[in-house]
Amino acid sequence: MADSRDSRPLELGLSLPNRAVLYGGTTVEELLALAETADRDPVWSSVWVGDGLIAKPRLEAVTTLAAMAARTSRVRLGVCCLATFPLRQPVLFAATWASLDVLSSGRTQLAVCLGAPTGRGGGDFRVELESMGVEPKERVARLEEGIDVLRRLWSSRPETPASFDGRFTSFGPVALEPRPVQDSCPIWIASNPDPERLSPERYLKAIDRVALRADGWQTAVTDPATFGRQWDRIRERAATHGRDPHLLRSSAHLMVNLADTVEEGRTAAKAFLDRYYNMDTPPEIMDRWGAYGDADTVAARIISYVDRGLDVPILRMASDNQTAMIERVREELVPRLGISL
User: Fold this and answer.
1) Co-location of 336 and 261 in the same domain
2) Most buried pick, 9, 16, 92, 262, via CB within 10 A?
3) Where are the beta strands (DSSP E) in the chain?
4) What is the 3-state secondary structure (H, E, C) of 283-302?
5) What span, in angstroms and rounded, lies between the C-alpha atoms of 293 and 299?
6) How far is it, in rounded angstroms, from Cα 313 to Cα 43?
7) d(CA 216, CA 218)
8) Is the peptide bond before 113 cis (omega within 30 degrees of 0)?
9) How far is CA 316 from CA 12, 36, 55, 94, 126, in A?
């Protein structure tokens, strides 16, 4: 399925480092002030934070977004991605996210994911899963069932209460309050399915999970060509299953460092990412994850995703000076992306 953004305007998201507060890389006030800055600048359509618990701790995502909701009025507020979703009790989370949607006047954007498996990711996810009483092999089923629970509860009414009988969650009939402001809070699935590491059957299941259950796809650590192939496949499978593929959205979480040279930007970005994720970021991950160097080089990299159908580039400033890098991106990079204000 060729290009495919269907003439939708490009939307730019700003990813803010809520983990950096824990090690002194930023402050709570700076984090909130940067959200306010994005809210005042029409170039940014959304603000995002990350999610983690024990393996990659940070300020809890929904709580942080609630604080940002009180300091902003325009930008959408999202998580890229909610890695703890399979660990959360979905009925309680349905009320929590609905409350955030009310507090933000309907500006939430939920992206859920499986979290990292026990052997990868720069943290001890085994301890995290054990602490929450979740078996590693349950994560897929918990994610899929959790999405079903959210949709069922968010559509419930006093006159039409919801019931659910699942593997992990059963209830009903109940009508959840508060209800979200949005008629249906969008739910994206974040994933990076790798056909070289997964069997053909498991790869297709990962693609179908997005094509059948999600309102959009979020990805990271994916080069433009791979992004394009997977996005085409998701949309093809959505059409096969009777869904309108043109209604699906796509986003990619990209690390950015503007500098005079690629080497300078890459070196600074790696220093930030190594500290932020508490690991030695491998060269191949650096290559797939980000864009470094002068504005023309970085813009060309982002546009190569857009040309393959990307709707929302979500940019994280891979820099120890968030404010300065955001200003530089605004002045040097944004004019090269052709964003209409």
Assistant:
1) yes
2) 16
3) 12-16, 44-49, 76-79, 108-112, 162-165, 170-174, 187-190, 216-220, 249-258, 290-293, 312-317
4) HHHHHHHEEEECHHHHHHHH
5) 10
6) 12
7) 7
8) no
9) 11, 16, 20, 28, 27
Query: What are 330's two structure tokens?
Result: 């605004």
Could you report how far apart the first and last alpha carbons of the chain are, in Å? 29
From residue 262, how far is each of 28, 290, 293 by CA, in Å?
A: 31, 11, 4
Which residues is 256 bridged to in the sheet? 291, 317
Q: What is the pLDDT, as a whole number, of residue 124? A: 78
Vertex 251 angle, CA 250 and 256, to 5° = 155
Identify the helix (H) or strand (E) that includes residue 233.
helix 224-240
Query: Are 253 and 331 part of one and the same domain?
Result: yes
Does residue 3 belong to any structural domain of this protein?
no
- Cα dihedral sign, 64-66-69-71: negative
| 3-state class (DSSP) for residue 245 | helix
300: Cβ–Cβ under 8 A, 6 or more apart, which residues? none
CATH (domain of 296): 3.20.20.30
Residue 258 contacts residue 325 (beta carbons within 8 Å): yes
Q: What is the mean pLDDT of each run of 10 residues along the chain (341 residues)?
A: 61 98 97 98 97 94 98 97 97 98 98 74 79 94 98 96 98 95 95 89 96 97 94 98 97 98 98 94 94 98 97 98 97 89 58
Of the candidates 160, 190, 220, which is a domain's last residue? 190
Q: Is 118 contained in some domain?
A: yes
Amino acid at 284: E
For residue 67, the enclosing domain spans 50-190
